[in-house]
Amino acid sequence: MRRMLLLAGVLAVATQQSRAQAPARRPAAAPPAAAPLDSARLRGMLYWPTDPYWATRAPDTVLMDVQTNRGTITIELRRAWAPHGVDRVYNLARAGYFDDSRFYRVVDGFIAQFGLAGDPVIAERWSHQTLPPDARRASNTRGTVTLAQFKPDDRTTNVFINLRDNSRLDAMGFAPIGRVVKGMAVADRLYAGYGERPMAAANTKRVYGEANRFLDAKYPKLDRIRKVTVRTR
What we know:
This protein has 233 residues and is an alpha+beta fold. The protein has helices spanning 2-21, 39-45, 83-95, 120-126, 184-189, 204-210, 212-218; strands at 61-68, 71-78, 101-102, 105-107, 111-114, 144-147, 159-162, 176-182, 224-232. It has a single domain (56-232), classed as Cyclophilin.
């Protein structure tokens, strides 16, 4: 009996020493961060406008270099002015939505408008993705940039540059999202010979159904956006 008690004591001590010497368990490693989306994957996501990715919050200030066939227009987006609008344009721009598109509505001394994707499938899908209204926090003065709308809750992807002081638009709920900080002279030179005609009611179905194919065939002098590059301050 005494030998059994001594043996039990030895085993208990050995077990305690073994536990003391055992290395502490390491916490489970965190899963690796998701790889950033490359330009090709982003471009592909344009076909899926309801993906949660498109709700990514934009930085407070964003610069967009809009490279056109006439030169570069640099736009500063200000999220404090219109959060919903800036988030939308920022995410579209970095995915290449505006690349190889047209200034399809240029009215001399009024506005220069773009925002219709060159790919008709993308253009049609995004035409249904309306945004909540943004309260207007800036005026539509010359050089400001604003999302087009018929009413404040139907904005999608179409953006215009105010070529003059259009502050009369303020009362209609047009909320600027930013302003041109460089290249306003380029905006002033955009071809305005077609005026409102490309977006006439009779053209709407073909504009969204064919996009660049229709615009290039019927309105070949429209100026082009070659590429939009996004950078932060």
